Amino acid sequence: MRADNSEDLHCLADVERAAATVLPAAVRDFVAGGSGAEVTLDANRAALDRVFVVPRVLRDVSRCATVTTLLGRPARLPLAVAPVAYQQLVHPEGELAAARAAKAAGVPFTASTLSSVPVERLTAVGGSVWFQLYWLREPGRSLDLVRRAEDAGAEAIMLTVDVPWMGRRLRDVRHRFALPDHVRAAHLAAGPTTAHRPPSGASRAASALAAHTEATFSPALTWASVAALRERTRLPLVLKGILAGEDARRAVECGVDAVVVSNHGGRQLDGALPSVDALPEVVAASAGGCEILLDSGVRSGTDVLRALALGASGVLVGRPALWGLAVGGEGGARRVLDLLADEFRDALGLAGCADVAAARELRTVRRT
Prior knowledge:
Helix 10 crosses helix 11 (about 275-285) and helix 12 (about 300-310) crosses helix 13. Helix content is about 40%, strand content about 15%. The mean pLDDT is about 95. The chain is globular and about 60 Å long. It has 14 helices and twelve strands.
């Protein structure tokens, strides 16, 4: 461990504090920050803490099984590592170390289009790898990335649908944040891009990363694009960034296998609904036609239990994996996943649930 000994890390908040001591301020803020006034960033956590689970008693929980299936494949936890860009910012091995940690924990790892390590090296680790896709201005390039991910052995395609361009992230703007030369988007350009040039001026593009994504991502992503992608790939297709029930219904009609209820961790529309508050509507609208995953603000095993009780199949965890990487590389990321596994098993048993299916039958109460 580079900051704390792993025995001193007893919850994800401990890991976050340890990461803050080793990361440069600009990188720390890039990972931690949200858009605008960070109202939605803060609301994600507050909304989860308003969900209370009604436990059951007098049930045999001498053996609590955390195993489940996600997208038709077994997982040791109802959890996948979320796609996060440019992980070599926080550790030299970046996504490679995180993928190894996910394999050891028995959960899927999602490789981003903006991964600093190519998908082929991540699937070579031998775990379950999903590939997250940003729709590019040249649709043919997007489909080429899908083909590349398929050829590499990825097990699912996750299309992010809430980023026509990057939200205005003021922490990045204030730092005039740009990528160091050694960190690249391995699936896009081979050399330096606008993401590596410190910006000038006070426009939305005052973050170099915002300038790069605005030039690269397509704001013309539509349901027709989803249909084209569904026709192109036989892999399970996931849409990440759904908050409205109407969009969940449309996703089911398009043959999508899963949706991720997500506001991008508070990094896109500031003032967007907290993900957990949107979850019940999305579950109801999908009517069992696809799996539902919850993203944005998950920080404990109790949060995983809350998500299951509200109808989700599982959760995505993003920032905590980066905190673990920053603190201790593969071992730090594995510590994060081990903590979540221990906490979830504890929450499961204390709620009177012997398995994941029982957790989905729990009742919840929201307190204001």
